[in-house]
Design brief:
Elements lengths: L2 H30 L4 H7 L9 H10 L10 H32 L5 H10 L9 H10 L6 H5 L5 H13 L4 H8 L4 H12 L1 H16 L3 H6 L8 H8 L4 H20 L1 H14 L1
């Protein structure tokens, strides 16, 4: 075997091993969600599918769990969708507006404002739980969707990505808009929004997945079971049961579907971001 052929074989073997390493746990989880609880307790997780999948998913969607037995998986799914969509939407919109103001309004302190925004990356939500909780409590946002969403909004990274995109636009765009009599908001809606669609879609997907997987902040801010999310509700049903594994599968479906739907925008935005840097 020649050296180029051997290199290709080794490369494909490494890629195959990586795929097995990443996909294997997901397949194990999905197949275990179709097994009866008795088999999972006695024999552990299984790689082959069983016959109890519909029963497990039907049970987990209608089972009333929690300390007061008033929360179901369907309710937790709704809560997770609201929180994740709110975080993703607010992150995308605020990042877009912040980058637009920093680049196109030519502020004298734009550089300082950018670095102040990026400095928030040094203070993640987990490091300021106490103060954030105090502010949220003072505003009366405990056990509300607003209290779960606003502190988790991530503007810094989105602002940086949008700013790099806007800096790659020719300055003639702004001059043409001024000659056409377009004001700031018309320039934003007619020029900036259409050209930022792919980058915005990528930021929305990433923010949605981060918001969907939030655990500590919803655990701290929601004492009412009616606001429990799916990630938090896994422990209420039991991870070693058939319905519990079915609930775990439900937690990965919305982000997976979102990535599949927006994968073209996501990959194109990443390639454009690499070129802009």
């Amino acid at each position: 075997m020649t050296r180029p052929a051997l290199r290709r074989v080794c490369t494909h073997a490494i890629l195959l091993a990586g795929i097995v390493f990443l996909v294997g746990p997901v397949l194990l989880m999905m197949s275990s969600s179709t097994q009866p609880t008795s088999d999972l307790v006695t024999e552990g997780l299984k790689f082959w599918p069983g016959r109890h999948g519909p029963e497990n998913f039907r049970t987990v969607l209608t089972l009333q769990a929690g300390f007061t037995d008033q929360i179901t998986a369907a309710d937790m799914l709704r809560n997770s969708l609201i929180v994740a969509s709110g975080i993703a939407g607010a992150t995308t919109l605020l990042s877009l507006l912040a980058a637009y103001g920093l680049v196109w309004f030519r502020l004298r302190l734009a550089g300082a404002f950018l670095w102040i925004t990026l400095a928030t990356l040094l203070l993640p939500l987990e490091s300021r739980f106490i103060t954030t909780f105090q502010v949220t409590s003072a505003l009366g946002l405990i056990n509300t969707y607003t209290g779960m969403i606003l502190p988790a909004v991530m503007v810094a990274v989105g602002t940086l990505f949008f700013r790099q995109l806007f800096l790659s636009f020719p300055g003639e765009y702004l001059e043409a808009a001024r000659l056409d009599g377009a004001g700031p908001w018309r320039f934003f809606s007619d020029f900036i929004l259409p050209l930022s669609r792919e980058r915005g879609g990528a930021i929305f997907v990433v923010s949605f997945m981060i918001g969907w997987n939030q655990y500590l902040w919803p655990l701290l801010i929601s004492t009412d079971e009616s606001h429990y999310t799916l990630v938090r509700g896994i422990r209420l049903i039991g991870q070693e049961s058939g319905p519990g594994m079915a609930l775990v599968v439900l937690t990965i479906l919305p982000p997976l579907l979102l990535v599949i739907i927006f994968q073209r925008w996501f990959l194109r935005a990443l390639s454009d971001q690499k070129e802009s840097f």
